[in-house]
Amino acid sequence: MKEINFKPKGVCSTNIHFLLDDENNIHELTFTGGCNGNLKAIGKLIEGKNAKEIANILKGNQCGYRNTSCADQLAIAIESAIS
């Protein structure tokens, strides 16, 4: 498993952590900071799912007036990890 730690920009969370298995499936996603309940739910929803598919779904998601969101930052983290 590959361990990923990503420092998001422009959002409330301060760290995104997850594991990627050999088939690029996501495991054990956690966020530090941010909207606790919503971010825990994202982790449960994407557990074991393909990283590229998840990045495609979440990319461009916005939070309020921001041009990004924790979900969008996760997509950026995933793309960086699998490229």
Write the layout of secondary structure elements.
Layout: E1 2-6, E2 15-20, E3 26-32, H1 36-46, H2 51-58, H3 70-82
Antiparallel strand pairs: 1-2, 2-3
Helix pairs in contact: 2-3
Mean pLDDT: 97
| Main structural class | alpha+beta
Main sheet characteristics: 3 strands, antiparallel
Which overall shape is indicated by the principal axes computed on the Cα atoms? globular
The number of helices is 3
N/C terminus separation? 16 Å
Poorly predicted spans: none
Report on this model:
By secondary structure, the protein is an alpha+beta fold. It has one domain (2-82). It has helices at 36-46, 51-58, 70-82, and strands spanning 2-6, 15-20, 26-32. The chain has a three-stranded antiparallel β-sheet. A hairpin with an 8-residue loop joins strand 1 (2-6) and strand 2. The two termini are 16 Å apart.
Summary, kept brief:
The chain contains 3 helices and 3 strands, in the order E-E-E-H-H-H.
Key traits:
alpha+beta; 39% helix; globular; single chain
